[in-house]
Amino acid sequence: MTGAYDPGQDGAQMSFKVDMSYGDYLGLDDLLGAQGPLSDAHDEMLFIIQHQTSELWMRLALHELDAARGHIQTERFSEAFKMITRVARIFEQLNSAWDVLRTMTPSDYTAFRTQLGASSGFQSHQYRLIEFFVGNRNTAMLKVHEHRPELHAKLVAELERPSLYHVALRALEKELDVSLPEDAFRMKEPHQSDDAIVAAWSAVYRAPETHWTLYELAEKLVDLEDYFRRWRFNHVTTVERIIGFKRGTGGTSGVKYLRRMLEVELFPELWNLRGGL
User: Does domain 42-276 bear CATH number 1.20.58.480?
Assistant: First the structure.
């Protein structure tokens, strides 16, 4: 019988008094010390970690969306496709996280809900940035962030840049040698479906072999929205399962508000064209 395996005997570094370790590189002391439950309720730790990890994934989504937008603008479509696919998979990961949170019962949540005060995921500036990035630019939501001038400034700055869908539409114009309505490029309003854009995307879908790059771009965007919609739907069902139709801690109507958000379409023309093909 052999003794316990010692990886140091195979050359693995075992001492980190001088060199950077795994925990050092990842800043684990700060990361794992960032959970501060305000009650003795067992499930408050689950609630905190669920939302903190979601914010980390959203940070990566913003990193990828920003790069994808730049690559579309410079016609580096292959790189953009990889990044948009990654964002879709990030939302798949976020969807799986709801399954963990749904193990918390209404009684579990009630034990610490009052500790949240008026805080709510509704106030996530990163989620708002993601919406602004992809084209759902509701400026009324800026007010929620006025108490943090630096975060408010990030959101305002994003409204000065074309959204991911804006740059996709510019690529569509170039591919088909057409001019789309300027209303489609409004920077500070949510995107609204336009018949001319439906017609342009339909031309791509009717001849994918001719317009393969734009066809693939369209499907990447649809895939992204598909996963994003699933995330929103799972959010609604999780909230309804845990608090029913109570008002949200941030003052929203809770489930009713979240159901209304399900009606928002990020890339409406890409969905609307399908019935006409």
Answer: yes
